[in-house]
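User: If only I could read backbone structure tokens as easily as an amino acid sequence. Those tokens are not coordinates but codes from a learned vocabulary of shapes. Could you go through the record with me and say what the backbone is doing? Here is the record:
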Amino acid sequence: MLEKLCNAFGVSGAETQVRDLLQNVMSSHCNTTQIDSMGNLICYKKGNKGYKNSIMLAAHMDEVGFIISGITNEGYLRFKTVGGIDIRVITAKSVVVGPQKIPGVIGVIPPHLDEKENNATPKTGDLFIDIGAKDAEQAKKYINIGDYAGFDSKFMEFGSCLVKAKALDNRVGCYILTELANYIYAHDVYFSFTVQEEVGCRGAATAAYNVLPSVALVVETTTCSDVIGTEKEDYSTRLNQGAAISLLDRTSYSDKGIVKALVTTAKNNNIKYQYKQTTLGGNDAGTIHLTENGIRTGVISVPCRYIHSPSSVASKNDIEGCRDIIYNLLRSEESEEWSF
């Protein structure tokens, strides 16, 4: 299932293929599934204890990508980025464009012969997508302004326990939710698959308002910087050291009770965990915790190297560990109150 989710096309604003996959899976495990006006998929699973409090598990469906902004006379496609993408990682990369998934390659205007220009990082305006069209007329037969483009990079397992794919952020979180949906819990659980996280956490705002849960847990991926050139004290997370529990970032401050519950659950079940050691970035928690009168919200993430690139890398051990922490937390709570 993780492979299918990662290979699916789902740039922010065009999550239909991912949502269809998830709805097909979740409909057999949940009491109801619904798609709201923003395009979020909200799947409700009734608890078996009749408790009044409910839990929202949230994972965003969308991935970073591109939107076509122009077509040159020569048939090349101009584009803007959708979400945060490091321009250094995209030149000469394969993409698919538009509803027909036309194959293309990201090209760059040849630099001047000046050494300084040669070594400069290109800007988005220097780049284009080459779909092999001979001119604008031919390109316009297949592509329209406003079409989306995404990385064309297939899921692959390698090493002892690693996976490589585009869109591990956040198909990993979506996959974990599908795994958790196989079980029945004491509390009502809303499995919320949100849209447009990469462009401002927009879908989560309406999803949280529709559900209004007692507590929320965002299931994410996060930066893993344990690579050459990074000092250990600057690591955000480390691969194969367990799921990362967030304390705060630029958009939210995790509920201390939820943080404590996640850590206690990991310890009690001998599951590896780590704290996210940087406070950069943000995720759906930033909008969920501010909804209506406020929602107690936490974040647990799978470390991911080369995030927002065609070849993100994660550990299957960390993915399974993240799933197991959440599962044991949900199964261990047997009191009527969500007693974090």
